[in-house]
Amino acid sequence: EEMAALLPEQPADDATRDRERRKRVVPYNFRRPDRLSKEQVRSLYLLHDLYAHSLSSSLPLFLRTASEVNLISVEQQSYGDYMRGLADPTTIFSVALTNLKGVFVIELNTSIALPIVDRMLGGEGQVPKELRGATDLELNIIEGFLKIITDGYCEAWKPIVEFEAEIIGRETHPQ
User: Fold this and answer.
1) Which residues contact 111 (CB under 8 A, 6 or more apart)?
2) What is the DSSP string of the chain?
3) Which of 88, 113, 126, 156 has the maximum number of C-beta atoms within 10 A of its C-beta?
4) Segment 59-102, tens digit of pLDDT
């Protein structure tokens, strides 16, 4: 028994080493978005597809109207390309994640954001004739809507990693 205590620990078996290798965090280079494997993109697609189905059941209760959420695609692109492709005006919220480093953004096109505000204030959810940037009051109302979105997102990721989301910034002009 004393001899066993003096011996160095036995190396982990192959399965343990394999699990440790998969847990390793690898930095992501946002300037070269081709770093995700097809398997990783497929996993992200499946996770976000389940998230979309979850939103399809929670949003009608919140907005008090029929709504449907469908995932169209999961694509990789640089952040600069993403920003250049946004309409102006648009509504962008920066979201920080507790327990994780980094920030992500939620973008709501004005043609979606303003009808959500209209619906939440008792209207029919009509798209305004003139698209404009959301006012501070409208952005505050949209934050209530985004709470449903971010809570569902945290729940969708829960089997993989637990975190909480907090809105830390908002903007109506992406540039």
Assistant:
1) 127, 131
2) -HHHHHSPPPPPPHHHHHHHHHH------TTS-TTS-HHHHHHHHHHHHHHHHHHHHHHHHHHTS-------------HHHHHHTS-SSEEEEEEEETTS--EEEEEEEHHHHHHHHHHHTTS--PPPSS--PPPHHHHHHHHHHHHHHHHHHHHHHTTT----EEEEEEESS--
3) 113
4) 998 888 888 999 999 988 888 888 889 988 999 999 999 888 88
- In the predicted structure, residue 159 carries a pLDDT above the cut 50: yes
Residues in the chain: 175
Please give the structure tokens belonging to residue 88. Answer: 């102006």
Q: How far is CA 116 from CA 60, 61, 76, 79, 125, in A?
A: 12, 13, 28, 26, 6
Tokens of 147: 């709470």
What is the C-alpha separation between 92 and 89, in angstroms, rounded? 10
Residue 66, both tokens: 């029929």
* 98 touches 166 (CB < 8 A): yes
